[in-house]
Amino acid sequence: MEQQLRNIMTSDVYTVKDSQTIQEAAALMSEHNIGAIPVVNNTGEMVGIVTDRDITLRATAQGEASQTRVSEVMTAQEIVKGTPDMDIHQAAQLMADQQIRRLPVVENGQIVGMVSLGDIAVKDQFDQDAEQALSSISTPSEPQS
């Protein structure tokens, strides 16, 4: 039985603009207990994603100040995204292949939801997909040169 991401995604998604500071993004993450926030432009189109890890490794560890702009630490190229009608098995495989724990769900360029491995894991019929994805994600990737 095919299940779509729209059936399990979180549709109440918090976003930031690329001109906001990492301190603002981190405060949102802390307030809502989330680890990733989609970055949108003025029309609401997703232009990137910033994670707690991005802030830590690309700003804090480099001695950057809390006033650093989100645009300086976000992932903007090759953003891995899903669509609301994507099959959950496909999404889990995509997350495993790309070694990501959270998948933004985009429709017509607009962020409409987020799916985490946890969202997939709590569905009994998909717990093996989540387990496989987590196993792949936890495998160290090759360092970039």
UniProtKB/TrEMBL annotation:
All residue ranges annotated as the CBS domain in the record: 9-66, 74-131
Keywords assigned by UniProt, alphabetized: CBS domain
Xref: Gene3D superfamilies: CBS-domain
One Pfam family it belongs to: CBS
SMART domains given in the database record: CBS
SUPFAM superfamilies cross-referenced by the UniProt entry: CBS-domain pair
Protein name, as recorded: CBS domain-containing protein
Protein species of origin: Litchfieldia luteola
